[in-house]
Amino acid sequence: MQTIDKVRNGCIAFVLFMMGLMWMGEAVFNNRVALALALYATVVGVVALVAITFFSHLVRRRNMSVEEAVNRDVKNVLVFGGLAMVKYDDSRNIVWISDMLEAMNLKITGLKLLDWQPTLASLFDSDDIQVIDIKGKRFEAYNAEESKLIYLKDVTQYMSLQQDFEDQQICMAYISIDNYEESIENADEATAAQIQSVCRQVIVDWAYADGMILRSYRTGGYVAFFNERIYRKQLENKFAILDTFKKKSADIDAMMTLSIGIGRGTSVLKELEELASSALQLTYSRGGDQVAIKSGKDKVRYFGGKSDAYEKSSKVRTRVIANSLAGLIKRSSNVYVMGHRMSDLDSLGSSIGIARIVQAYDKRVAIVIDDNSLEEKTRAVVQTMKNDNRYDGMLTGPNEAVERVNKDTLLIVVDNHKPSLAISSVLLDMVKNKVIIDHHRRGEEFISTPVLTYLEPSASSAVELITELIDYQNVDVRINERDATIMYAGMLVDTHFFQQRVGVRTFQTAAKLKDFNASVTDAYELLQDSFERTQEIGELERTAELYTHHIVIATGRDDETHEQVVLAKTSNNLLEVSDVMAAFTIGRTAKNKVNISARSSHTINVQMIMESLGGGGHFSMAACALEGVTTEQACQRLKEAIDRYFEERSQEE
Ligand SMILES: [Mn+2]
Q1: Distance 337 CA to ligand 1 centre (A)
Q2: CA–centroid distance, residue 392 to ligand 1 (Å)
Q3: Is 438 a domain residue?
Q4: Which residues surround ligand 1, an ion (CB under 5 A)?
Q5: What is the pLDDT of residues 106-124, one digit of tens each?
Q6: Looking at per-residue confidence, does 201 or 300 come out higher?
Q7: How far apart are CA 418 and CA 288, in angstroms?
């Protein structure tokens, strides 16, 4: 029994005892006074009893359970607290809904629970909480399976507060107009003015329409501040500004595009600026016409860049680069030219081209070659060069090169820009003055502090870039017929015999090399496969299977190793099959390394797919290397990467 009841009973017993005593007094004395006293005591007693009962009731009320307390008020309590309930039967039909839902005019009794809210299905598998939409309101739903009740909590306000908070986070963007200065330089006064005003107008209109803060910080460069809500709007329309700008620019016959680097996901302003700035660097060297978004520690996201980098119409940049390069060569004591590891003919051919330019300025030059890191065809060519007096002293090993480095040594890196691909990383570290000339789209890894960078992803090959540079030298660069043939072969390799990434300038370069007496027959011969290799490629091709979206995947055996070029050739061959949009070849290239070579025909961005596996390359030509996996596992990871690529695309569309 509760304490309160004991106290109450005690009081009642005491009052009754007092009343009894008075009446006994009256019985004993039997006089008026005694009677009056007894009557008085009775009246007081009854009042006291009523009061005791009442107060005890009051006190007891505070100790009641919710159940007893609210009783019929339960309805109001639930509505006020934003709680609702849905009861269902064994076959998950809704049999009852609480008043709050009734009040919302919800007619769902009799319906199947999951027909009404399909997402609730997950609540039957786990103890989860799910947020659902009911007539524009947001509810957290919990399933009490025992009692066959769905508890619903109205979290509309909380969610909208959270949304408001997220919406207000600040983003920063650097916006840069690609090819802006070149376009203006090449135009007459009136057109230049038109270009300036159109560019400005398009960017300003876009920024202001969406409520951004925009300031120009340099010629053709803007900085913008906006919040997450505005950012999301841009995501929704997939940064339509890229196309709008490109179109407006085409309307006035200019070839300009936008590169936008966005930083977000941090409340530290300094970090925001760093993210935006490095995002811009990325877009810029990936060929422009795209948006890169860096959010805190997340992976970089790209928009646009879905069309292959188009050729730049102006050769102004080439001339400027050619002049700067000449200046650097003239100021140097000696020059090294270095291609990439597992050097192919583009790497070697472009190195030879540069070496001839340097020789034209009477400077000592050597091409760094690592005999242990040559692709098969290139190895054969290097061998012939060693027996050819036209190349006396022109080739050097990485170790010898290191010995002759001084503070005025110039290192020209061709056909690559990643430290991890350098033939000699020691040389890379030792030489202060570095030039990078490459046609690969920029990856995140990049050789630090070059004095000159010439990245041109629209070029077919490094040979193409360097042959153009030869054109703009003010001295006579002597390219002999063997040089030209090797360079021509380099172009053949990188364009897959003029089938991929070929532009007007590619053919101009080919013509130029022919002028230098390149032998096309010899070039093709340099690239001919041995019977064994042809068989090897054939074997790989036979493993090809069709995946989705017209993609084929060839997977080599785990107990066989292949050269990377074999994988590349297999992909190339597979791509030639009609209806194949992309081809991937997976093969072991070393004991602990599996490589994937990817090729596509301009509809699927294999660079993005390879990047998601830690590799890189071009839109239509890319590769990656995986360690510690079997070829089967590599195949699985590739398929996942392909699925992700299409998922992301479909989200963007
Ligand atoms: Mn190349």
Answers
A1: 15
A2: 25
A3: yes
A4: 346, 415, 462, 494
A5: 888 888 988 888 888 888 8
A6: 201
A7: 19
Checking if the pLDDT of 335 tops 70, the result is: yes
Say how many Å lie between the CA of residue 279 and the centre of ligand 1: 25
Task: Give the Å distance between the CA of 228 and the centre of ligand 1.
Answer: 40
Tell me, in angstroms, the distance from the centre of ligand 1 to residue 553's CA.
24
Rounded to two decimals, the pTM is: 0.50
Residue 396 and residue 466 in one domain:
yes
Q: Are 120 and 92 within 8 A, CB to CB? A: no
Hey, is 589 helix, strand or coil? strand
Judge whether 443 lies within some domain: yes
CA distances to 212, 265, 281, 283 from 278, in Å: 21, 15, 5, 9
Give the DSSP per-residue string, 537-570: HHHHHHT-EE-STTEEEEE--TT-B--HHHHHHH
Tokens of 604: 């699927």
pLDDT tens per residue, range 444-479: 788 888 888 888 888 899 999 999 999 888 889 999
Q: Kindly give the distance from the C-alpha atom of residue 346 to the centroid of ligand 1, in angstroms, as a whole number.
A: 5
Task: Report how far residue 351's alpha carbon sits from residue 544's, in angstroms, rounded to the nearest whole number.
Answer: 36
- Residues in CB range of 260: below 8 A, 6 or more apart: 173, 174, 175, 176, 239, 241, 242, 280, 283, 290, 291, 292
Q: Is residue 473 domain-shared with residue 548, that is, in the same domain?
A: no
Identify the pLDDT of residue 618: 82
Q: Are residues 155 and 253 in the same domain?
A: no
CA 273–ligand 1 middle distance (angstroms): 33
Angle CA(557)–CA(563)–CA(565) in degrees, nearest 5? 115
Give 564 Cα–ligand 1 centroid separation in angstroms.
Answer: 14
**Cα(536) to centroid(ligand 1), Å:** 23
CA distances (Å), origin 484, targets 189, 233, 375, 517: 41, 52, 19, 7
Collapsed DSSP state (helix, strand, coil) of residue 276: helix
**How many angstroms does the Cα of residue 348 sit away from the middle of ligand 1?**
9
Residue linked to tokens 């019985």: 27
CA of 286 to the centre of ligand 1 (A): 15
Categorize the per-residue pLDDT at 368 as very low, low, confident or very high, splitting at 50, 70 and 90.
very high
Residue with tokens 């990467």: 641
Q: Is there a single domain that holds both residue 335 and residue 246?
A: no
CA quadruple 475, 478, 484, 490: dihedral, nearest 10: -50
415 CA to centre of ligand 1 in angstroms: 5
561 C-alpha to ligand 1 centroid (Å): 23
Q: In this predicted structure, what is the pLDDT of residue 310?
A: 45
Structural domains of the chain, count: 5
Structure tokens at 314: 């102006």
Inside any domain, residue 410 = yes
Largest CA distance in the chain: 154
Mean pLDDT (whole number) for 573-596:
90
Ligand 1 center to 490 CA (angstroms): 8
Q: What is the DSSP string of 168-224?
A: T-EEEEEEEEETHHHHHHHS-HHHHHHHHHHHHHHHHHHHHHTT-EEEEEETTEEEE
Q: Is 166 contained in some domain?
A: no
Instruction: State in Å: Cα 510 to ligand 1 middle.
Output: 15
Containing structural domain, residue 636: 537-652
**If you measure from the C-alpha of residue 569 to the centroid of ligand 1, how many angstroms do you get, rounded to a whole number?**
15
Q: What is the CATH number of the domain that holds 131?
A: 3.30.450.20
CATH number for the domain spanning 220: value is 3.30.70.270
